[in-house]
Amino acid sequence: MTNPISVPIGPIGYQDMIEKAVEHWYVELQDGAGNKLLRINTSDSRCERVGAVGTSPVRFKMTVTGADMPSLPTEVARTAIFRNSTDSTPIAEGPIVGALLYLPTDQVAVITPIYVPE
Predict the structure, then answer these.
(1) Which residues does 110 contact at the CB level (< 8 Å), separation at least 6?
(2) What span, in angstroms and rounded, lies between the C-alpha atoms of 55 and 16?
(3) What is the 3-state secondary structure (H, E, C) of the chain?
(4) What is the predicted pLDDT for the residue at 64?
(5) Can the peptide bond before residue 73 be classed as cis, meaning omega within 30 degrees of 0?
(6) What pLDDT does 80 receive?
(7) Tens of pLDDT along 53-103?
(8) Do 63 and 46 form a contact (C-beta atoms < 8 A)?
(9) Residue 94 Cα distances to 62, 67, 83, 114, angstroms
(10) Are 115 and 55 in contact (CB under 8 A)?
């Protein structure tokens, strides 16, 4: 058997890798203790890809209302990205500037940037 060769990936391949990785991710909003409030697929109508496709950071804008929350009032204080709807270990997570939702009609938009190394 011969030694494997290593070939650097170019910009087009890098863009393709980013796109394939994020197509089926889930964005989760959490309270301050990290408890799940809502997790949706990035293809959900409440989730929008923001910024240039195939570039880093990958940004997801999730727009939700109080009616989407399990109970009110609630504070959205963290966000996380998961590979699927049932994973318990996030790909990425962190605090955000908090938002309080008191009424079912209250609305918040949360942008989650994911930096993909080149």
Answers:
(1) 29, 61, 62, 63, 64, 76, 79, 96, 99
(2) 10
(3) CCCCCCCCCCHHHHHHHHHHHHCCCEEEEECCCCCEEEEEECCCCCEEEECCCCCCCEEEEEEEEHHHCCCCCEEEEEEEEECCCCCCCCCEEEEEEEEEECCCCCEEEEEEEECCCC
(4) 96
(5) yes
(6) 93
(7) 777 788 889 999 999 999 999 999 999 999 999 999 998 899 988 899 999
(8) yes
(9) 15, 24, 16, 11
(10) no
- pLDDT (0 to 100) of residue 118: 63
Residue 117 has pLDDT above 90, yes or no: no
The alpha carbon dihedral of 55, 57, 60, 61 has a sign of negative
Q: Give the residue carrying structure tokens 């008191």.
A: 102
Edge to edge, what strands does the sheet with 26-30 contain? Answer: 36-41, 26-30, 74-82, 92-101
